[in-house]
Write a structure and sequence with these properties.
It holds the Pfam family HTH_18. Belongs to the MGMT family. The protein is α/β, with parallel strands linked by helices and 286 residues long. It folds into three domains: 103 residues, Arc Repressor Mutant, subunit A, CATH 1.10.10.60; 77 residues, Double Stranded RNA Binding Domain (2-Layer Sandwich), CATH 3.30.160; 86 residues, Winged helix-like DNA-binding domain superfamily/Winged helix DNA-binding domain (Arc Repressor Mutant, subunit A, Orthogonal Bundle). It is 48% helix and 10% strand. It has 13 helices and six strands. The strands form two sheets. Strands 3-2-1-4 form a four-stranded mixed sheet. Strand 1 and strand 2 form a beta hairpin. Helix 4 packs antiparallel against helix 5. The longest helix has 18 residues.
Length: 286
């Protein structure tokens, strides 16, 4: 984000306010620019540099949040599409697939008839929260502090609003703990079923992470090239940061192109510990 003058800031603030006020109208770039008396090219460039996404993407985000709110209130999919300013259910469908990785209907019915087990397990790298559906593991989170103990469960309740939650250490959860503790062979990782929800782009990135062997590292640039989108390094970094299954989807094996370890969602010190352990055990195999 570059430094803006007071005038530029006020202009961008006015644009954002306009988008909030007119999101249901799905304004074009020309209409947005006209609202502040500037050219569409200038508004596009300044908005992209300041906000980080284009005005069109910002409107899509606002529309999606409004649609999610309506679906949670049990509005029909057609009414949700029209009330969000979209031309029909097709556009609403595309919007949800792009940003949520599921259809509007699936979002509305999240967790219906699903029994979700969760438990807290012990590993050498700290306690973990593990959750699974009948289809497989849907969440593994390292517990940071006692004050954050309930956070992973609360986040999952928001994601699967209609599911039944059972505090139970299922055999699958115990296998996860044992594997992270180094008690199982590496091939067993492939037998642990995963239940993932994400955008098509996120799923491609997470699939690429699964291909990184223990004891080896990849840069964000290499992951971007592996999925065939070499210019999407920042988007790759964002998808890596949103990985819902710690360790089994080894986002800790991704570093910066400079060789710097970089940050880690579950603390940089834990990332260093994980990598050190893997390097010691598997580093001479690659």
């Amino acid at each position: 984000m570059k430094n803006l003058s007071t005038t530029q800031f006020m202009t961008m603030a006015a644009v954002i306010d306009y988008l909030y006020q007119h999101q249901d109208k799905q304004p074009t770039l020309e209409q947005i620019a006209a609202s502040v008396g500037l050219s569409s090219g200038y508004v596009q460039r300044q908005f992209q540099e300041w906000v980080g996404i284009s005005p069109k993407k910002f409107v899509q985000y606002l529309s999606l949040q409004h649609a999610k709110s309506l679906l949670q209130q049990q509005s029909s999919i057609l009414d949700t599409a029209l009330d969000s300013g979209l031309s029909g259910t097709g556009r609403l469908h595309d919007l949800f697939i792009q940003f949520e990785g599921m259809t509007p209907g699936a979002y509305k019915q999240r967790g219906v008839s699903v029994c979700l087990n969760y438990s807290y397990e012990t590993t050498p790298f700290g306690e973990i929260f593990v959750a699974s559906t009948p289809k497989g593991i849907c969440s593994i989170q390292f517990i940071q502090t006692t004050s954050e103990y309930e956070q992973p469960l609360n986040e999952l309740r928001q994601k699967f609003v209609a599911a039944d939650f059972c505090h139970r250490s299922a055999p699958l959860h115990q296998q996860v703990s044992a594997w992270i503790s180094g008690d199982l062979t590496q091939c067993l990782q492939q037998k642990l079923p995963l239940c993932l929800q994400g955008t098509p782009f996120q799923l491609k990135v997470w699939e690429a992470l699964l291909c990184i062997p223990a004891g080896q590292l990849r840069s964000y640039q290499q992951i971007a090239e592996q999925i065939g989108q070499p210019q999407a390094v920042r988007a790759v970094a964002s998808a890596v940061a949103k990985n819902p299954i710690a360790y089994l989807i080894p986002c800790h094996r991704v570093i910066r192109s400079t060789g710097a370890i970089g940050e880690y969602h579950w603390h940089r010190s834990r990332k260093l510990a994980l990598l050190s352990c893997e390097m010691a055990k598997y580093g001479n195999q690659g």
